[in-house]
Design brief:
Layout lengths: L1 H13 L11 E17 L7 E18 L3 E18 L2 E18 L3 E15 L13 E11 L4 E12 L7 E15 L1
Antiparallel strand pairs: 1-2, 1-8, 2-3, 3-4, 4-5, 5-6, 6-7, 7-8
């Protein structure tokens, strides 16, 4: 009996039919909260030149999705206030905000959506001589994977992992790579 129930659930989750599929088409807005961790590689301004940093991150997002049956695609704009910072004997600094413009594409499983995302990220960096001129004009890349679930017609909850990389920002040789883990909630219009 348990085996039959597990097989039925697995089959239901792996097939997406018109009768099962939820409608993901439309505008949405919401917020996210999470944790970030990564590596600073600041060759030109600190000794040691490579170290790890982490912090809390959270903000808001909005976008549009279009449902094509089994597949969903759309654009999303995100902004996070962050506390990604470091404090070393030769200097300290922090990323105070991160903006992202991403394309999202995913598989429609009815009321749930598994997706990947890719896009550009912009950030502002504060507090370190030689790297303090970063102000949303040094773009980086972002890629991620996530899952969302429609609680009802309007509310969606989920989570997302994103990888970010900023190369040669400020003075040459300054690189930052970090990861974020978010929980998300959004309202569909």
């Amino acid at each position: 009996m348990k085996r039959a129930l597990l097989c039925s659930v697995a089959l239901l989750a792996s097939t997406s039919t018109a009768a099962l599929a939820g409608d993901w088409t439309g505008w949405y807005a919401g917020g996210q909260l999470g944790y970030s961790y990564g590596e600073f590689d600041l060759d030109s301004v600190t000794t040691p030149d490579s170290f790890d940093a982490d912090g809390v991150i959270g903000g808001f997002m909005g976008g549009y999705l279009r449902d094509y049956g089994d597949w969903v695609i759309g654009l999303e704009l995100q902004y996070d206030f962050s506390d990604i910072s470091f404090n070393e004997p030769t200097g300290s600094g922090s990323f105070d905000g991160i903006a992202r413009l991403k394309t999202r594409a995913g598989r429609d499983f009815g009321n749930s959506l598994g997706f990947i995302s890719v896009g550009v990220a912009y950030t502002n960096f504060d507090g370190l001589a030689g790297a303090s001129d970063i102000d949303f004009d040094d773009p980086g890349v972002v890629a991620g994977v996530g899952y969302e679930y429609q609680v009802n017609e309007n509310w969606v909850v989920g989570g997302e992992y994103m990888w970010h990389q900023f190369l040669d920002f400020g003075a040459d040789g300054n690189d930052v790579t970090f990861n974020t883990l978010h929980v998300r909630a959004s309202y569909r219009f």
